[in-house]
Specification:
- The complex is a heterodimer of chains A (265) and B (310).
- Chain A has 265 residues and is α/β, with parallel strands linked by helices.
- Chain A is built from eleven helices and ten strands.
- Chain A has a single domain (2-95, 151-264), classed as Rossmann fold (3-Layer(aba) Sandwich), CATH 3.40.50.
- Chain A has helices at residues 45-53, 75-78, 89-92, 99-107, 122-133, 152-164, 182-198, 210-215, 234-238, 242-253, 260-264; strands at residues 2-11, 19-29, 34-39, 60-65, 68-69, 82-85, 170-174, 203-206, 219-224, 227-233.
- In chain A, strands 6-7-8-3-9-10 form a six-stranded mixed β-sheet, with helices on both faces. In chain A, strands 2-1-4-5 form a four-stranded antiparallel β-sheet, with helices on one face.
- Chain B has helices spanning 3-29, 37-53, 58-83, 87-106, 120-126, 133-153, 156-166, 168-173, 178-204, 215-230, 235-258, 269-288, 296-299; strands at 110-112, 206-208.
- Chain B has a two-stranded antiparallel sheet.
- The longest helix of chain B has 27 residues, at 3-29.
- The N and C termini of chain B lie far apart (63 Å).
- At the A-B interface, α2, α3 and α4 of A face α7 and α8 of B.
Chain lengths: 265, 310
């Protein structure tokens, strides 16, 4: 479903501030796989997701979604194949648009936008309200509320619904619970897993927590210094616990994991 | 204030409400501080005046002025989107270029439409309200344009334009082409301004190359007054604010002129407008940000900087 081939990205190339962010990443994701991505700060997790989404262009290598070469395509031209939830709750929704308008915008993702009224009536409205009620966030009665008036958790849940409203090839979740309080984070994470499982979505989720990376999804990859260090899936993954990951990390890199948040979270 | 001055102020206010609607689209919806307006307003006036003098039907001539405005907006947006020229500069470049273009269009610094048939003539013959004929016609046009803007911003494209102006990152992720939305929005915005210029030339009976000076500031003044009265978030209220704001603003100016307030004369209008906009922006900032201080040096003694907590 998604193939990343020998991807290289360097930020600020040719300057003293040059940062190699991806250094030869190869990744193949099958249809229906839910891949969690972990790694220390600067490991290249977010760069990988941004490269798949199109916000970061590859220096070399290729990205293929469902057999289509999307390497050179700008974000908006890939967006029809990609559902995406950002880390920052304010990034994924439009504050001055209502909940319903945000959803309407997502409902026309990947299609041609014309001069038809964006908002549906009657049945369409009830359908939206029903989908919102399944989020369990009390949003069903607030179709007309501005997204700017929602809490962080509500906004991320809305983002999640917007991302999964239409059929897509791959769902990208970029630390989408990191900016939430623990309660809301847990709820949104559960929701993500539920929706992904129900619709059998292919998903790529970056998380800062080793615990979550093993508890959710079907496959875990660990990145370090712009490369994929570990790739755990299938039966082997079931036996893994956080200390195992830490040991493996130490064994492969020869250094301890120094990112407290990664261990404790 | 005489009835003549009153009707004149309302007429001018309704004309500038179209500018305010355009400015709302560029400054607020698209977040594009567009200065093209100072050029597209006289462009609309010039194109329409020339067409009318050449015997073209005034309704067609008005359409020509509107389309001319659209073209000006398109150029500014294209400079910004395609060549990454800073939006402010792109607008200034177009505005400056339009000064020369407007002279070329008219072939001389001004064209009088005295005695020519305008769109106000046939409608005025149909329903004659004396002094108020033009105002009523302009009111109908302004309300129609307000409803048009409301409708457009509620369509799928309109929603994409709004998202693109407010949150381009999110818009892209929803497959919105931000560059295209900027071009669409700016074209419409300056089309409204061109229409305002076209109607201005016909109601005042003259197109002049210098009548664009300060258009943007007047439009902004109207927009800000409207926002203060009706809020800026709901589209229908914001566009209503443009209409009411523009009329109130012109009434206020007319009142100040007729009362001889502070000795204000017609040539001081641009200064007054600039001051009004500056004060309105400062006050709206103060309202949004409670830590904003108009006179920070007066407070320095009282509020020592608090140590940051780790």
């Amino acid at each position: 479903m998604l193939s990343v081939c020998d991807a290289y990205v360097t930020f600020n190339p040719g300057t003293p501030l040059a940062v190699p962010a991806l250094r030869g990443v190869d990744l193949d994701i099958e249809e229906g796989e839910f891949v969690t991505v972990i790694g220390t700060n600067g490991a290249g997790k977010s760069t990988l997701l941004s490269a798949v989404a199109g916000d970061v262009r590859l220096d070399s290598g290729g990205i293929y979604i469902d057999g289509h070469d999307v390497t050179g395509r700008p974000t908006e031209q890939r967006a029809g194949m990609i559902g995406r939830v950002f880390q920052e709750p304010r990034a994924g929704t439009c504050s001055s648009l209502t909940v319903e308008e945000n959803l309407a915008l997502a409902a026309s993702r990947g299609g041609r936008r014309g001069l038809r009224s964006a908002l549906g009536r009657g049945r369409k409205k009830r359908e939206l309200a029903e989908q919102l009620s399944r989020l369990g966030m009390g949003l069903e009665g607030r179709l007309g509320a501005l997204a700017g008036t929602l809490s962080g958790g509500q906004r991320q849940a809305l983002s999640l619904l917007m991302a999964t409203l239409l059929p897509m090839k791959i769902l990208i979740l970029d630390e989408h619970t990191a900016a939430l309080d623990p309660g809301a984070a847990a709820t949104v994470l559960e929701l993500s897993a539920e929706i992904t499982g129900e619709q059998k979505l292919t998903a790529l989720m970056v998380t800062h927590s080793m615990r979550n990376s093993l508890d959710f999804g079907t496959r875990t990859i660990m990145m370090n210094a712009g490369r994929i260090l570990l790739d755990i899936h299938g039966e082997e993954r079931k036996g893994y616990d956080v200390p195992d990951l830490l040991n493996l990390f130490k064994k492969t890199t020869g250094s301890e994991v120094e990112d407290d948040q990664l261990i404790l979270a | 204030m005489s009835a003549l001055a009153l009707s004149g102020a309302i007429e001018a206010g309704l004309l500038f409400s179209l500018v305010a609607l355009g400015v709302y689209l560029s400054f607020r919806v698209l977040n594009f501080p567009d200065l093209t307006v100072d050029g597209s307003f006289p462009l609309g006036a010039a194109a329409t005046a020339v067409a009318i003098v050449h015997g073209i039907n005034p309704f067609v001539a008005t359409a020509i002025g509107t389309v001319a405005g659209c073209c000006a907006g398109f150029v500014s947006a294209y400079l910004n989107v395609r060549f990454k020229i800073l939006n402010l500069l792109a607008g200034i470049l177009t505005m400056v270029a339009l000064y020369s273009i407007n002279l070329r269009v008219m072939g001389r610094p001004n064209i009088s439409l005295y005695g020519e048939e305008t769109i106000f003539t046939p409608i005025g013959n149909l329903i004659d309200l004396g002094l108020w004929t033009n105002s009523v016609i302009l009111l109908v046009i302004a309300v129609a344009m307000k409803l048009l803007v409301d409708w457009f911003l509620g369509t799928q494209v309109g929603l994409a334009v709004r998202a693109s102006g407010e949150n381009p990152v999110m818009a892209r992720a929803q497959s919105v082409d931000n560059g295209r939305m900027t071009i669409i929005g700016m074209t419409l915005s300056n089309g409204l301004v061109g229409l305002a210029g076209a109607l201005f030339a016909q109601s005042q009976g003259v197109a002049d190359v210098s009548l664009g000076i300060g258009t943007i500031v007047t439009g902004l003044a109207a927009l800000i007054i409207g926002e203060t009265l009706f809020g800026s978030i709901k589209v229908a209220w914001a566009t209503l604010g443009c209409l009411v704001g523009a009329v109130l603003y012109r009434l206020f100016i007319a009142a100040a002129l007729s009362a001889g307030f502070l000795g204000i004369q017609a040539q001081d209008l641009n200064l007054v407008t600039a001051v009004v906009v500056a004060v309105a922006v400062i006050l709206s900032q103060a309202r949004r940000n409670s830590r904003f201080r108009l006179w920070p040096w007066l407070r320095r003694q009282v509020t020592q900087p608090q140590p940051q907590k780790g």
